[in-house]
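Subject: Interface between my chains keeps coming out wrong

I've been trying for a while to get a sensible model of this assembly. When I model each chain on its own everything looks fine, but I need the whole thing in one frame so I can look at the contacts. Pasting all components below, labels as-is. Any help appreciated, I'm running out of ideas.
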Amino acid sequence: MRFYILLSLNALTVASLYFLVASGFSLIFGLLRTVNMAHGAFYLLGAYVGYDIASYTGSWLLGLAGAAVAVAAVGLVMHLTLLRTLSGDELRQALVTIGFAIVVGDLLLARYGGITYQFAPPEILYGTTPMPVIRGYPTIRLVVIASALLVGLGLWLLIHRTRLGMLIRAGVDDRDILSAMGFNVQRVLVLVFALGAGLAGLAGVIGGSALSVSPGEDARFLLSSLVVVIIGGMGSLAGAALGALLIGFAEQFGLAFIPNYATLLTFLLMVAVLAVRPQGLLGRG
Amino acid sequence: MESTNSLVVSGLEVRRGALPVLHGVELRLDGPSLAILGRNGAGKTTLCSALIGLLPAGRGSIRFNGVELAGRKPHDIASQGVSIVPQGRRVFPSLSVDEHLRLMQGRRPGPWTAERVYEVFPRLAERRRNFGNQLSGGEQQMLAIGRALLTNPRLLILDEPSEGLAPKIVDHLLEVLGSLHRDGTSVLIVEQNLRVGTSAAERVAIMSGGQIALVISSRELWEDDGLQQRYLGVASH
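Reply #2:
Try treating it as a single job with all components included. I did that and got this:
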């Protein structure tokens, strides 16, 4: 019993991280119709920037906020300079984001080297939170789960309760008609792109604190985001949550019971979804 | 107020990808309304897309009340008072009826408010909480028209509004369209259905092979079976 609860909590932690990264990715995908292949780079950039700010100021929270803002700004500039000029040409946009990701990845490698960094979160996040049955669970992992819930709730409110949210939903549904109704869709796109990038930066600090920061994490989280969106359906917040949960559980339970084939399980899940519902579980056809 | 708008299209050439579809369209709308009739593939929907800026004009000009629209972005054209009820309705599936109207309301000054849309289409008021994909075809059409009217347009373009709708609903829509000129809104209605096109406007432009072949009064076309056969491939009676 204890084992299963622990395993489930671990799966929830991983799923939360995946959701934090993939929610922004999915929004961008749904609205821009562009696969932002630099999303993993945004994650890693956020982790390093947050690490620098946190070490310099001694405040983990400042690192968190600073990373989100800085990466959002990078996303904004990237959209304005690189993507906007290619608007309407999704393939080229995707290729440009790959190039951007490679450049950012190499710059980070040059600056921080290949070693692994470990965040020093506040004392209060370091310890163990007492829990029934399993006695205790690392506080930082509970923080990861809580942040995913908070971000999910915040995004849900933004999308379903605000005017900008209406614009985002309408834009995901039918960009052309939205612009024909007099809305400057480009302005919404740039906002959503910055928001998605900022979320990835935020996730970088949270993920870097729960795990660690090292080169290669960018590719890992880009891949997981892609799988989450393929399973959940692009542009759907609930889809991103569902996809992240499925992958988190498949990965952790797979590692526990069939360690040799755990990775395979994730992709089997993806293949199954593609075969039955190619638009994703909660995506619209 | 009467509608005194003028839309002048001249020498308009438009491609879809590599394929030229419009070959020098000449069109004039003065006053309350004009219908464009033509067979499938005559270029009607392409013309609509070009008018609202969703397809770029390769050549030619589109002047609305003296302002050149060719080359402008769709949202810019919308701010000049041109709105569309697109073919297939294209309401937003993930917005509720009420959200559609709230989103559009109050962006351009004019007589249309969400309340007025609900008065004109009481059916929409009953479906206020339903999402775009939970509506019947007729309801979607009412919503698409309400959405366009809330931009307080001076020119309303409708692309095949009668497609797939019951005659009773079409008659209601025609009645609504017929009253728009009192608010100074002109109507450009694109149709395959001869009855709808000729009852919506006094004059009809017939489109064929990417050009305007003929402009004629609705009554004349209605009474001339030969013309109908030739350009529309239908007999009306």
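Reply #3:
Confirming on my end. Chain B has a mean pLDDT of 93.
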